[in-house]
């Protein structure tokens, strides 16, 4: 390449061009940070801290964070309580009433649309499955993903608390640090604990409420450890370090088991989908294979029985390839 034009430029011109280049680069980076709301110290890592930075009062913050939390115990059984806990764990930005109204409206729309093509009973079943069953499955997956992320963040939060306790900070300061520096969901959850303790709730009670809200085995371990240490005394920092190591080792073991069982889970998925693929292939190649006998009186009962057996097969295979420890 020919760089002869550089020799003809004065040193002052080179400096000016470099200043223009770096000035444009800094302006672009500043614009990117402002647009992305990541400018310097303004950025907050969790929803609670963002609301505090916006000047939202504590009552409103508590209302938002506790919007969908159930007042029942985590051990309460029943479909309504199970649905309420799933919505709370999914941490939706809308309330329970708005969610139910949306689901009912969605189901009615599906029923009206499906009734134009199929009989009313079939349209009702379709509306129930797609209007309530499918959203519940999505909410359950969202709740499981959020709880899994919280379990993965918990060892880091305990390490942060243990380091603060070892250098002499009080417990409420270490809780405030986790609530400020950790992202959601663990940041907002520890912020709730810190707010509860600051408003006069006992330490053991605050961690017990946290365990009831999350209902995870690792969180119950934390609640029990804090309760025992609070009642008998001892080095809480060392207890938190040991608990952090145990939780992290359990997560590593779970990932190893998940990887080793991947072949079985894939085989179960293929075996569950195989009947549907076979029916679709046969119907595509020879439509009369099923249509010629669809008016037979036992066709519908046999078809329903086969669908039930396929669903049971999928459930059994899923339970066989799922390991709890």
Textual characterization of the structure:
Among the domains are: 32 residues; 105 residues, Receptor-associated Protein (Up-down Bundle); 61 residues. It is extended and about 80 Å long. Helix content is 77%, strand content 0%. The protein starts with a helix and ends in a 5-residue tail after the last helix. Helix 5 packs across helix 7, helix 6 runs antiparallel to helix 7 and helix 10 runs antiparallel to helix 11. The longest helix has 47 residues. About 2% of the residues have low confidence. The protein has 15 helices and no strands. With 325 residues, the protein is mainly alpha-helical. Keywords: Cell membrane, Membrane, Transmembrane, Transmembrane helix. One of its GO terms (cellular component) is plasma membrane. This is Tight adherence protein B. Its main location: membrane. It is a multi-pass membrane protein.
